[in-house]
Amino acid sequence: MDYLRTPDERFDNLADYPFQPHYQSVADGQSGKLRVHYVDEGAGTAGTILLIHGQPTWSYLYRHMIPPLVETGYRVVAPDLIGFGRSDKPVSIDDYTYARHVAWMSEWLNALNLRDTILFCQDWGGLIGLRLVAAFPQRFAAVVVSNTGLPAGMIPAELSEPLKEAYKTLPVVNTTELGERFLDTSGIPGFLYWRKFCAESPDFDVGILLQEMAMNELPGEVVDGYRAPFPDQSFMAGARKFPMLVPLFPNEDEVLENIAAWEMLKQFTKPLMTAFADSDPVTAGGDARFLEDVPGTQGVPHRIIESAGHFVQEDQPQACVKALLDIAKLA
What residues are paired with 39 via a beta bridge? Predict the structure, then answer.
């Protein structure tokens, strides 16, 4: 598998990101190896916390959460998914599949032998992280799910073909319009516009996307931090592919695997907290299924994080830290 590796100098002197790099090799699925980067900070006297990011971010998203968690005695581990951050980036968009992402992170998790871990997952961090919980429940002591889910063909079969046909004719909207499309629930689902944008937009700029979706204006050096892993468009195959891998339609890949994962989560009795943002049009209401189906949600202080959008870790990092420390008391 051909891959690119972002030059180290792209990560020099990033704002609020002083962490030393750590690496673990995993099988690429084609008789080769890929390198996974991860942050690994803290002594771990209080336990281990695993932070998994989504698209199109990287462990930089957790830069304000890692220090206070370390200060309270935790070992904090924050990987970069393959295709993101300092991890290797396969060149071909076809090299990225949902199954491979799960396999890559499963091998990484087992190689680090993480145990009694508290997971915080957001966006694709949940689509992958919750599959890890379902596959290796013995490795997890508690879970915080934030602005994420585990979709398994949620669009009804009778709507699938009409929506797929409509998708072919959708315009590629600009970055500003994406938020408006998510808020408009009267027509084509906003996520399909996001799929189209990521697949076809010539203006796929991660820094601008984060700036548009943040509740407050991001300083220029922070925008540059999000851009750092992607020197040019050739590094962005993984970031562009992720929306196409979300199994929205009943006949898409990994629907059956996610259904099976839900069956495992229905038996998960360890503490699971929902901590969704109050202003995220992407995942609004996504906490309901966890509260209905996962027994570990009972007796847990769930919350809605105020003044936060999709990237809640950027908007309200202190509230995310509090969620982790609160659930740790129950683990």
Answer: 78
Decide if 22 is catalytic: no
Q: Catalytic residue at 310? A: yes
- 0.90 surpassed by pTM: yes
Q: Any long-range contacts for 90-93 (C-beta under 8 Å, 24+ apart)?
A: 90/1, 90/2, 90/3, 90/28, 90/34, 90/237, 90/238, 91/2, 91/3, 91/4, 91/234, 91/237, 92/1, 92/2, 92/237, 93/237, 93/240, 93/241
The verdict on whether 116 is a catalytic residue reads no
Domains of the chain as residue ranges with CATH: 3-153+251-328 (3.40.50.1820), 157-245 (no CATH)
Selecting among 123, 205, 287, 315, the annotated active-site residue is 123
Tell me which of 37, 53, 101, 310 is the catalytic residue.
310
Q: Which of 28, 80, 280, 287 is catalytic?
A: 280
What is the chain's pLDDT, residue by residue, as a tens digit (331 residues)? Answer: 999 999 999 999 999 999 999 999 999 999 999 999 999 999 999 999 999 999 999 999 999 999 999 999 999 999 999 999 999 999 999 999 999 999 999 999 999 999 999 999 999 999 999 999 999 999 999 999 999 999 998 888 898 999 999 999 999 998 888 888 887 777 788 899 999 999 999 888 999 999 988 998 999 999 999 999 999 999 999 999 999 999 999 999 999 999 999 999 999 999 999 999 999 989 999 999 999 999 999 999 999 999 999 999 999 999 999 999 999 999 9
